[in-house]
Amino acid sequence: MAQAKPLQDKTLQATTYQAKTQFGYRRHSDQDRTGHSPAEHPVVVVGAGPVGLSLAIDLAQRGQRVVLLDDADRIGEGSRAICFSKRSLEYWDRLGVGDRMVAKGVVWSVGRIFHGDSQLYQFNLLPEDGHKRPAFINLQQYYAEAYLVDRIQDLPGVDLRWRNKVTALEQRNDGVALTIETPEGAYRLHAQYVIACDGARSSLRQMVGAEFAGQVFEDQFLIADVKMTAEFPTERWFWFDPPFHAGRSALLHRQPDDVWRIDLQLNRYADPVVEKKPENVRPRIARMLGHDKFEFEWISLYKFQCRRMDRFIHGRVIFAGDSAHQVSPFGARGANSGLEDAENLSWKLDRVLRGTSPASLLESYHTERSMAADENIRESTRSTDFMAPNSHQEARLRKAVLSLAKETEFGKRMVNGGRLSVPCSYDSQLSSRDAESWRGGPAPGCSMLDGPIAEQSYLTDAFRKGGTDFTLLSFSNGAAIDPPDGVRNIRIGGSGLGDPSGLVAKRYDAEPGTAYLLRPDGYVAARFRHPTREAIAAALSRAQGLN
């Protein structure tokens, strides 16, 4: 589930785990440059949430030095985002934290939709075997942040500074000058690029004079994380008009540590101060569960917001995650889309800083990720309108759809309890169009597909081990191609990697001669039926923003 936007700080209590993950302020030598020019840094990332932490790790693994600033001294309170997608897990694999996330998280792929006390239908988000990672895991955001912070401790390229708050910025031709407030006073530093990952209430967005455009929905929703022992299966359960919460919707999800996420739709006129009181929440949850043997971990109220910035790049300040776009939490599109921002931006910024691609390559970050934001907002708005109709006509339509869903397959497909996050496909200037016909396989602008290449080993593992380069994926039923400089080779079959189940060849429509050029973020830049070194070089140049 994407991160909910509380109306105000609603944290009920910090868990024992969270209490152990507070970090002390430390003075940095940059603060001692009194009377001298500010310290110079290639990249400053503002905001140590999942997006900022992941982006900093990614850049550091590419050899960049990163200063990461956060105005707090601890990881975030409350579970907040809990639902992380297969794509996010594959990204975290490349950052060295995927195994830890999955080991702690609750794995799931099945969801059920109910109307009243009857099940309308169920779905499986990953019905086919042969993938390293599951469709989703549920994991409290504070665990995800803590594991990312632990990873940063292993990377000398990241300088993480707690209780460092950006209070002013000044755009310059060669970078950005920042003023930073600390417990010991203010200091300044200069960065070639600043990445704003400082959340929905981004102060940097205000500093560059940018606004959000979009819709704020009036319906209110209650989050209650409760700790209890329960025999419910590890699935996503969503109700329309349940008997325990008549006329509204409800959601139930399992998290680690016997914690369960419950979302309950409230009246838009409900008083948030009153509704969030534990003594008022308890009866609601007890009616749902049929007992009151649970403890509260976290209570919050929120309203849906589906908004984004007009542009994600303002001079040398680049926005990512919730600072750039917001969606409703149903569909797990908030945190996951923010992580996709990070993986999209990191390799491009790395190339620009190294001088191997022009600064104009960064424009493709805005183009591609604003396209993804529009898709997420569109899907999120549709889900919200279905769950919380704004008019009698919309309510009548929903009632009719729910009735049809009990009897027909097409009616089930119309029910919208939150379309779950999937990777966006880009209509991008970095992609080379197909020159030949294809019956299947990921098209240019689409995310790569996984598949087994040996026992307990997958294509995404082979891609990850190659580091930060472009990759040519080819098959042994075609002639071997010597790829251009800067492109490593993954070859399936023959003396190369295995394909024991044939799933890799099937998923990539691998007729004789097939090859794919993959970007460093795992997206398809081009694909070929009869590749030549010259054709690959031309596609590589386009994908690097060189033509």
Descriptive keywords:
547 residues; alpha+beta; FAD/NAD(P)-binding domain; Alpha-Beta Plaits; 4 domains; eight-stranded mixed beta sheet; 15 helices; 25 strands; 28% strand; globular; disordered N terminus
Explain the overall architecture.
The protein is an alpha+beta fold. It folds into four domains: about 15-105 and about 135-215 and about 310-360, FAD/NAD(P)-binding domain (3-Layer(bba) Sandwich), CATH 3.50.50.60; about 215-305, Alpha-Beta Plaits (2-Layer Sandwich); about 370-415, no CATH class; about 450-545, 3-Layer(aba) Sandwich (Glutaredoxin), CATH 3.40.30. Helices cover about 30% and strands about 30% of the residues. The chain contains 15 helices and 25 strands. The strands form five sheets. Strands 1, 2, 8, 9, 10, 11, 17 and 18 form an eight-stranded mixed sheet that branches. Helix 2 (about 50-60) packs parallel to helix 9 (about 335-355). The longest helix has 27 residues, at about 360-385. The radius of gyration is 24 Å and the shape is globular. It starts with 15 loop residues before the first helix and ends with a helix. About 50% of the residues are buried. Mean pLDDT is about 90; it is low at about 1-15.
